[in-house]
Protein backbone atom coordinates (compact mmCIF):
# COMPACT_ATOMS: atom_id res chain seq x y z
CA UNK A 1 0.00 0.00 0.00
CA UNK A 2 1.13 3.55 -0.77
CA UNK A 3 0.40 6.07 2.00
CA UNK A 4 0.92 9.77 1.24
CA UNK A 5 0.88 11.96 4.35
CA UNK A 6 -0.42 15.51 3.83
CA UNK A 7 -0.13 18.59 6.02
CA UNK A 8 -2.57 21.49 5.67
CA UNK A 9 0.09 23.27 3.62
CA UNK A 10 0.35 20.30 1.24
CA UNK A 11 -3.36 20.41 0.44
CA UNK A 12 -3.08 23.96 -0.88
CA UNK A 13 -0.01 22.93 -2.92
CA UNK A 14 -1.63 20.11 -4.87
CA UNK A 15 -1.52 20.85 -8.59
CA UNK A 16 -2.46 19.00 -11.75
CA UNK A 17 -0.08 19.24 -14.71
CA UNK A 18 -1.81 21.27 -17.46
CA UNK A 19 -0.08 19.33 -20.24
CA UNK A 20 1.36 15.82 -20.64
CA UNK A 21 5.10 15.37 -20.07
CA UNK A 22 6.61 13.54 -23.08
CA UNK A 23 9.57 12.01 -21.25
CA UNK A 24 7.45 10.76 -18.35
CA UNK A 25 4.92 9.26 -20.78
CA UNK A 26 7.75 7.69 -22.78
CA UNK A 27 9.32 6.10 -19.71
CA UNK A 28 5.90 4.79 -18.59
CA UNK A 29 5.33 3.26 -22.04
CA UNK A 30 8.75 1.61 -22.17
CA UNK A 31 8.33 0.25 -18.64
CA UNK A 32 4.96 -1.26 -19.59
CA UNK A 33 6.37 -2.81 -22.78
CA UNK A 34 9.54 -4.27 -21.27
CA UNK A 35 7.97 -5.44 -17.99
CA UNK A 36 5.03 -6.98 -19.92
CA UNK A 37 2.40 -5.17 -17.87
CA UNK A 38 -1.19 -4.77 -18.93
CA UNK A 39 -2.02 -8.40 -19.60
CA UNK A 40 -3.36 -9.77 -22.89
CA UNK A 41 -5.11 -6.53 -23.89
CA UNK A 42 -1.71 -4.83 -24.13
CA UNK A 43 -0.06 -7.74 -25.94
CA UNK A 44 -0.57 -6.54 -29.56
CA UNK A 45 0.67 -3.04 -28.68
CA UNK A 46 3.62 -4.43 -26.71
CA UNK A 47 4.65 -6.67 -29.60
CA UNK A 48 4.54 -3.79 -32.08
CA UNK A 49 6.60 -1.54 -29.79
CA UNK A 50 9.30 -4.09 -29.05
CA UNK A 51 9.61 -5.10 -32.71
CA UNK A 52 9.85 -1.52 -33.94
CA UNK A 53 12.33 -0.03 -31.44
CA UNK A 54 15.50 0.93 -33.35
CA UNK A 55 19.00 -0.01 -32.22
CA UNK A 56 19.61 3.58 -31.12
CA UNK A 57 17.24 3.07 -28.15
CA UNK A 58 19.45 0.37 -26.62
CA UNK A 59 21.12 2.71 -24.08
CA UNK A 60 17.73 3.31 -22.41
CA UNK A 61 17.48 -0.37 -21.47
CA UNK A 62 21.08 -0.31 -20.22
CA UNK A 63 20.27 2.68 -18.02
CA UNK A 64 17.46 0.79 -16.28
CA UNK A 65 18.79 -2.64 -15.28
CA UNK A 66 16.36 -4.70 -13.21
CA UNK A 67 13.68 -2.03 -13.68
CA UNK A 68 15.35 0.50 -11.38
CA UNK A 69 15.65 3.81 -13.26
CA UNK A 70 17.83 6.65 -11.94
CA UNK A 71 15.67 9.40 -10.46
CA UNK A 72 17.16 12.15 -12.62
CA UNK A 73 15.17 10.77 -15.59
CA UNK A 74 11.88 11.88 -13.98
CA UNK A 75 11.21 15.39 -15.29
CA UNK A 76 8.07 17.32 -16.30
CA UNK A 77 9.16 19.26 -19.39
CA UNK A 78 6.41 20.22 -21.82
CA UNK A 79 8.52 19.06 -24.79
CA UNK A 80 11.25 16.51 -25.35
CA UNK A 81 13.79 19.32 -25.58
CA UNK A 82 12.60 20.87 -22.30
CA UNK A 83 12.70 17.48 -20.60
CA UNK A 84 16.21 16.65 -21.72
CA UNK A 85 17.41 20.12 -20.74
CA UNK A 86 16.11 19.46 -17.22
CA UNK A 87 17.83 16.06 -17.13
CA UNK A 88 21.08 17.58 -18.37
CA UNK A 89 20.88 20.22 -15.63
CA UNK A 90 21.02 17.51 -12.94
CA UNK A 91 23.93 18.10 -10.60
CA UNK A 92 26.86 15.71 -11.06
CA UNK A 93 26.65 14.52 -7.46
CA UNK A 94 23.06 13.28 -7.93
CA UNK A 95 23.89 11.71 -11.31
CA UNK A 96 26.78 9.75 -9.80
CA UNK A 97 24.87 8.67 -6.68
CA UNK A 98 21.86 7.50 -8.72
CA UNK A 99 23.96 5.53 -11.20
CA UNK A 100 25.77 3.90 -8.27
CA UNK A 101 22.41 3.07 -6.66
CA UNK A 102 21.03 1.59 -9.89
CA UNK A 103 24.06 -0.51 -10.76
CA UNK A 104 25.36 -1.35 -7.29
CA UNK A 105 28.01 -4.02 -7.73
CA UNK A 106 26.95 -4.89 -11.31
CA UNK A 107 29.39 -4.01 -14.11
CA UNK A 108 28.13 -0.98 -16.04
CA UNK A 109 28.44 -0.47 -19.83
CA UNK A 110 31.20 1.84 -20.97
CA UNK A 111 28.89 4.71 -21.89
CA UNK A 112 27.20 4.57 -18.44
CA UNK A 113 30.63 4.80 -16.81
CA UNK A 114 31.31 7.79 -19.03
CA UNK A 115 28.00 9.33 -17.95
CA UNK A 116 29.07 8.80 -14.35
CA UNK A 117 32.22 10.75 -15.17
CA UNK A 118 30.25 13.60 -16.78
CA UNK A 119 31.35 12.91 -20.37
CA UNK A 120 29.41 15.03 -22.89
CA UNK A 121 29.40 12.26 -25.52
CA UNK A 122 27.58 9.98 -23.07
CA UNK A 123 24.90 12.63 -22.55
CA UNK A 124 24.43 12.85 -26.32
CA UNK A 125 24.06 9.07 -26.43
CA UNK A 126 21.23 9.29 -23.91
CA UNK A 127 19.58 12.15 -25.81
CA UNK A 128 19.65 10.24 -29.13
CA UNK A 129 18.19 7.15 -27.46
CA UNK A 130 15.29 9.13 -25.99
CA UNK A 131 14.57 10.87 -29.29
CA UNK A 132 14.59 7.58 -31.22
CA UNK A 133 12.23 5.95 -28.71
CA UNK A 134 9.87 8.93 -28.73
CA UNK A 135 9.63 8.95 -32.54
CA UNK A 136 8.82 5.23 -32.56
CA UNK A 137 6.51 4.90 -29.56
CA UNK A 138 4.83 8.25 -28.88
CA UNK A 139 5.06 10.58 -31.87
CA UNK A 140 2.36 8.69 -33.88
CA UNK A 141 -0.14 8.99 -31.01
CA UNK A 142 0.96 12.19 -29.26
CA UNK A 143 -2.10 14.16 -30.38
CA UNK A 144 -4.28 11.42 -28.87
CA UNK A 145 -2.33 11.61 -25.59
CA UNK A 146 -2.84 15.40 -25.52
CA UNK A 147 -6.60 14.99 -26.02
CA UNK A 148 -6.81 12.37 -23.28
CA UNK A 149 -4.82 14.60 -20.93
CA UNK A 150 -7.17 17.54 -21.53
CA UNK A 151 -10.14 15.31 -20.73
CA UNK A 152 -8.49 14.09 -17.52
CA UNK A 153 -7.54 17.64 -16.51
CA UNK A 154 -11.11 18.82 -17.03
CA UNK A 155 -12.56 15.87 -15.12
CA UNK A 156 -10.27 16.56 -12.16
CA UNK A 157 -11.02 20.31 -12.15
CA UNK A 158 -14.79 19.75 -12.24
CA UNK A 159 -14.62 17.19 -9.44
CA UNK A 160 -12.63 19.60 -7.24
CA UNK A 161 -15.12 22.39 -7.97
CA UNK A 162 -18.20 20.26 -7.27
CA UNK A 163 -17.07 17.85 -4.56
CA UNK A 164 -13.72 19.04 -3.18
CA UNK A 165 -10.11 17.89 -3.21
CA UNK A 166 -10.71 14.67 -1.25
CA UNK A 167 -13.22 13.38 -3.80
CA UNK A 168 -10.93 14.36 -6.67
CA UNK A 169 -7.97 12.49 -5.19
CA UNK A 170 -9.86 9.30 -4.38
CA UNK A 171 -11.51 9.49 -7.82
CA UNK A 172 -8.07 9.13 -9.41
CA UNK A 173 -7.53 5.81 -7.67
CA UNK A 174 -10.63 3.63 -7.27
CA UNK A 175 -10.47 1.89 -3.89
CA UNK A 176 -8.24 4.53 -2.32
CA UNK A 177 -9.31 6.71 0.60
CA UNK A 178 -8.25 9.93 2.29
CA UNK A 179 -8.36 9.53 6.06
CA UNK A 180 -6.97 11.92 8.67
CA UNK A 181 -4.61 13.54 6.21
CA UNK A 182 -3.31 10.26 4.73
CA UNK A 183 -4.13 9.18 1.18
CA UNK A 184 -4.10 5.38 1.20
CA UNK A 185 -3.70 3.63 -2.14
CA UNK A 186 -4.13 -0.15 -1.61
CA UNK A 187 -2.40 -2.61 -3.91
CA UNK A 188 0.50 -0.30 -4.73
CA UNK A 189 3.86 -2.02 -4.32
CA UNK A 190 6.12 -1.81 -2.49
CA UNK A 191 4.54 -0.87 0.83
CA UNK A 192 5.59 2.75 1.28
CA UNK A 193 4.97 5.87 3.38
CA UNK A 194 5.70 9.27 1.84
CA UNK A 195 5.57 12.42 3.99
CA UNK A 196 5.18 15.60 1.99
CA UNK A 197 5.93 17.98 4.89
CA UNK A 198 4.74 21.07 3.03
CA UNK A 199 6.34 20.29 -0.36
CA UNK A 200 3.03 19.65 -2.10
CA UNK A 201 2.05 17.07 -4.71
CA UNK A 202 2.02 17.19 -8.53
CA UNK A 203 -0.51 14.92 -10.27
CA UNK A 204 0.33 13.58 -13.73
CA UNK A 205 -1.88 11.08 -15.61
CA UNK A 206 -0.27 8.49 -17.85
CA UNK A 207 -2.02 6.56 -20.62
CA UNK A 208 0.61 3.87 -21.17
CA UNK A 209 1.01 2.45 -17.65
CA UNK A 210 -1.97 0.33 -16.58
CA UNK A 211 -0.69 -0.55 -13.11
CA UNK A 212 0.26 2.39 -10.93
CA UNK A 213 1.02 4.59 -9.27
CA UNK A 214 4.57 5.76 -9.96
CA UNK A 215 5.81 8.16 -7.29
CA UNK A 216 8.91 10.31 -7.69
CA UNK A 217 9.96 11.67 -4.30
CA UNK A 218 13.02 13.92 -4.29
CA UNK A 219 13.89 15.72 -1.02
CA UNK A 220 13.25 19.43 -1.21
CA UNK A 221 10.94 19.17 -4.23
CA UNK A 222 7.21 18.53 -4.65
CA UNK A 223 6.46 14.82 -4.97
CA UNK A 224 5.23 13.79 -8.43
CA UNK A 225 2.53 11.12 -8.64
CA UNK A 226 2.07 9.52 -12.07
CA UNK A 227 -1.17 7.55 -12.06
CA UNK A 228 -2.89 5.37 -14.72
CA UNK A 229 -5.74 7.13 -16.50
CA UNK A 230 -7.72 6.97 -19.72
CA UNK A 231 -9.59 3.99 -21.14
CA UNK A 232 -7.16 1.35 -19.85
CA UNK A 233 -5.68 0.64 -23.29
CA UNK A 234 -2.64 2.24 -24.96
CA UNK A 235 -3.58 5.08 -27.36
CA UNK A 236 -3.61 4.11 -31.02
CA UNK A 237 -3.68 6.15 -34.19
CA UNK A 238 -6.34 5.28 -36.73
CA UNK A 239 -7.59 1.99 -35.25
CA UNK A 240 -10.56 0.98 -37.41
CA UNK A 241 -13.83 1.02 -35.53
CA UNK A 242 -16.25 -1.90 -35.66
CA UNK A 243 -19.52 -0.69 -37.24
CA UNK A 244 -22.23 -0.03 -34.67
CA UNK A 245 -24.66 -2.25 -36.57
CA UNK A 246 -22.32 -5.24 -36.24
CA UNK A 247 -21.87 -4.69 -32.50
CA UNK A 248 -25.58 -4.20 -31.97
CA UNK A 249 -26.28 -7.49 -33.76
CA UNK A 250 -24.07 -9.27 -31.23
CA UNK A 251 -24.81 -7.36 -28.02
CA UNK A 252 -28.25 -5.93 -28.73
CA UNK A 253 -28.85 -2.20 -29.28
CA UNK A 254 -29.71 -1.34 -25.66
CA UNK A 255 -26.77 -3.30 -24.25
CA UNK A 256 -24.39 -1.61 -26.70
CA UNK A 257 -25.78 1.78 -25.68
CA UNK A 258 -25.21 0.83 -22.04
CA UNK A 259 -21.63 -0.18 -22.77
CA UNK A 260 -20.91 3.12 -24.46
CA UNK A 261 -22.58 5.14 -21.72
CA UNK A 262 -20.43 3.37 -19.15
CA UNK A 263 -17.30 5.09 -20.44
CA UNK A 264 -18.30 7.29 -17.47
CA UNK A 265 -19.49 5.82 -14.15
CA UNK A 266 -23.24 5.46 -13.71
CA UNK A 267 -25.42 4.23 -10.90
CA UNK A 268 -28.15 1.78 -11.87
CA UNK A 269 -30.70 4.60 -11.63
CA UNK A 270 -28.75 7.05 -13.83
CA UNK A 271 -28.04 4.28 -16.37
CA UNK A 272 -31.73 3.37 -16.49
CA UNK A 273 -32.67 7.02 -16.99
CA UNK A 274 -30.15 7.44 -19.84
CA UNK A 275 -31.35 4.25 -21.54
CA UNK A 276 -35.05 5.01 -20.92
CA UNK A 277 -35.60 1.63 -19.29
CA UNK A 278 -36.51 0.42 -15.82
CA UNK A 279 -33.93 0.03 -13.06
CA UNK A 280 -34.36 -3.73 -13.19
CA UNK A 281 -33.64 -3.80 -16.94
CA UNK A 282 -30.59 -1.56 -16.55
CA UNK A 283 -29.30 -3.76 -13.74
CA UNK A 284 -29.79 -6.85 -15.92
CA UNK A 285 -27.80 -5.31 -18.80
CA UNK A 286 -25.01 -4.26 -16.42
CA UNK A 287 -24.89 -7.77 -14.94
CA UNK A 288 -24.60 -9.36 -18.39
CA UNK A 289 -21.78 -7.00 -19.38
CA UNK A 290 -20.07 -7.59 -16.05
CA UNK A 291 -20.19 -11.37 -16.49
CA UNK A 292 -18.41 -10.89 -19.85
CA UNK A 293 -15.68 -8.80 -18.21
CA UNK A 294 -16.72 -5.58 -19.96
CA UNK A 295 -18.06 -3.73 -16.90
CA UNK A 296 -17.13 -3.47 -13.23
CA UNK A 297 -19.58 -2.75 -10.43
CA UNK A 298 -18.67 -1.25 -7.05
CA UNK A 299 -20.95 -0.81 -4.07
CA UNK A 300 -20.92 2.20 -1.74
CA UNK A 301 -23.50 1.81 1.00
CA UNK A 302 -26.82 1.15 -0.71
CA UNK A 303 -25.70 2.49 -4.08
CA UNK A 304 -23.89 0.61 -6.85
CA UNK A 305 -21.80 2.21 -9.58
CA UNK A 306 -21.02 0.62 -12.94
CA UNK A 307 -18.11 1.50 -15.24
CA UNK A 308 -16.59 0.06 -18.40
CA UNK A 309 -13.39 -2.00 -18.22
CA UNK A 310 -10.52 -1.90 -20.70
CA UNK A 311 -12.06 -4.90 -22.46
CA UNK A 312 -15.37 -3.05 -22.66
CA UNK A 313 -13.60 -0.06 -24.19
CA UNK A 314 -11.93 -2.29 -26.74
CA UNK A 315 -15.27 -3.83 -27.72
CA UNK A 316 -17.18 -0.53 -27.77
CA UNK A 317 -14.68 1.22 -30.03
CA UNK A 318 -15.64 4.86 -30.64
From TrEMBL:
Signal peptide: none annotated. It comes from the Bacteria. Keywords: DNA-binding, Transcription, Transcription regulation. Gene3D superfamilies: Winged helix-like DNA-binding domain superfamily/Winged helix DNA-binding domain. GO terms for molecular function: DNA binding; DNA-binding transcription factor activity. It holds the Pfam family HTH_5. PANTHER family: ARSENICAL RESISTANCE OPERON REPRESSOR ARSR-RELATED (PTHR43132), HTH-TYPE TRANSCRIPTIONAL REGULATOR KMTR (PTHR43132:SF8). This is ArsR family transcriptional regulator. It comes from Streptomyces tsukubensis (strain DSM 42081 / NBRC 108919 / NRRL 18488 / 9993). The lineage of its organism: Bacteria, Bacillati, Actinomycetota, Actinomycetes, Kitasatosporales.
Amino acid sequence: MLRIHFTAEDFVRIRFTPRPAPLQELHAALTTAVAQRGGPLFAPWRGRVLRSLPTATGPLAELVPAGRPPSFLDVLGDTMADGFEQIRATGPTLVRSELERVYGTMPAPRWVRDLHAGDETAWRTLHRAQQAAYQTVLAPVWSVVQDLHREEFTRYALTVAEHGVAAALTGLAPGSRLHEGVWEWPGAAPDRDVRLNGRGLVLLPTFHHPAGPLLHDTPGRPAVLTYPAGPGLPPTAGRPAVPAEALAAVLGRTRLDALRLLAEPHTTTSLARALHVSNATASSHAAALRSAGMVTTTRTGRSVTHRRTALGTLVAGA
